[in-house]
From TrEMBL:
<dbReference type="GO" id="GO:0043024">
    <property type="term" value="F:ribosomal small subunit binding"/>
</dbReference>
<dbReference type="InterPro" id="IPR036567">
    <property type="entry name" value="RHF-like"/>
</dbReference>
<dbReference type="Pfam" id="PF02482">
    <property type="entry name" value="Ribosomal_S30AE"/>
</dbReference>
<dbReference type="InterPro" id="IPR032528">
    <property type="entry name" value="Ribosom_S30AE_C"/>
</dbReference>
<comment type="subunit">
    <text>Interacts with 100S ribosomes.</text>
</comment>
<dbReference type="InterPro" id="IPR038416">
    <property type="entry name" value="Ribosom_S30AE_C_sf"/>
</dbReference>
<comment type="function">
    <text>Required for dimerization of active 70S ribosomes into 100S ribosomes in stationary phase; 100S ribosomes are translationally inactive and sometimes present during exponential growth.</text>
</comment>
<dbReference type="Pfam" id="PF16321">
    <property type="entry name" value="Ribosom_S30AE_C"/>
</dbReference>
<keyword id="KW-0810">Translation regulation</keyword>
<keyword id="KW-0963">Cytoplasm</keyword>
<comment type="similarity">
    <text>Belongs to the HPF/YfiA ribosome-associated protein family. Long HPF subfamily.</text>
</comment>
<dbReference type="GO" id="GO:0045900">
    <property type="term" value="P:negative regulation of translational elongation"/>
</dbReference>
<dbReference type="InterPro" id="IPR034694">
    <property type="entry name" value="HPF_long/plastid"/>
</dbReference>
<dbReference type="GO" id="GO:0022627">
    <property type="term" value="C:cytosolic small ribosomal subunit"/>
</dbReference>
<feature type="domain" description="Sigma 54 modulation/S30EA ribosomal protein C-terminal">
    <location>
        <begin position="154"/>
        <end position="207"/>
    </location>
</feature>
<protein>
    <recommendedName>
        <fullName>Ribosome hibernation promoting factor</fullName>
    </recommendedName>
</protein>
<dbReference type="InterPro" id="IPR003489">
    <property type="entry name" value="RHF/RaiA"/>
</dbReference>
Length: 230
């Protein structure tokens, strides 16, 4: 593997190329990442005199079979910028190397050790069945509206009951516009079933009708469940 040094809108002197080869030790890099494919060094220069202290920028790109690693730095001359970028590259390579090593070296823990390493996990009783500690079961239960909630549950539950006379679809649209809402729940005077009219786009409206399915009602009733269970 060779180091490719190129300049972006600037010439790269031969002396600097030799310095790059000395600074970026390929043998050392391959020890940290043995799957390196290419190593590119790009040098660029900022012509703005106000940024003279950061006029030279060096970007190092290391490509391997793993993730691409980049390190860049700017300084008053390309040699100082290269030194800074090389230090960043070395630090990132070591971090990546340590992460791979720790993954390989991590041992598997036994089932008995799981509660010590994973907080909040259920433990096993003598017969091998799972159980939750008593304090975890003692979650306070409260009633909010018509809901029975364990723990914090919903923060806000509002429950309202309205007395409504059956009305036509036209009248429901008028009532919706009157109250300024995007939907309106009403009892359809023709079907005597609950319906919802709602605003779609511009002056288009939609309507949803609910009808009672006797088969579904019977299937969900306690009597039906008792019959199946018996």
């Amino acid at each position: 593997m060779d180091i490719v040094v190129k300049g972006r809108k600037t010439e790269v002197p031969e002396r600097f190329r030799k310095h790059v080869a000395e600074k970026l030790n390929l043998e050392k890099i391959q020890k940290l990442d043995g799957k390196v494919i290419s190593l590119d060094v790009e040098v660029s220069k900022e012509p703005n005199p106000r940024q003279a202290d950061r006029s030279d920028r060096v970007e190092i790109t290391l490509r391997s079979r793993g993730p691409v690693i980049r390190a860049e730095a700017a300084a008053s001359d390309p040699y100082a910028a290269l030194d800074l970028a090389a230090e960043k590259l070395d630090a990132r390579l070591r971090k990546q190397h340590d992460k791979r090593f720790s993954r390989r070296g991590a041992r598997r823990i036994s089932a008995a050790e799981v509660p010590d390493h994973v907080p909040g996990v259920a433990t096993l009783n003598g017969s091998g069945a799972g159980f939750v500690q008593e304090e975890r079961e003692a979650v306070p239960t409260k009633k909010i509206g018509s809901l029975e909630v364990q723990g914090d549950g919903p923060l806000v539950v509002r429950e309202k009951t309205h007395v409504a006379a059956p009305m036509t679809l036209d009248q429901a649209l008028y009532e919706m516009e009157l109250v300024g809402h995007d939907f309106y729940l009403f009892i359809d005077s023709e079907t005597k079933e609950p319906s919802v009219v709602y605003r779609r786009h511009a002056y288009d409206y939609g309507v949803i009708h609910l009808s009672t399915d006797t088969m579904v009602t019977e299937a969900n009733s306690p009597e039906a469940g008792g019959t199946l269970g018996g």
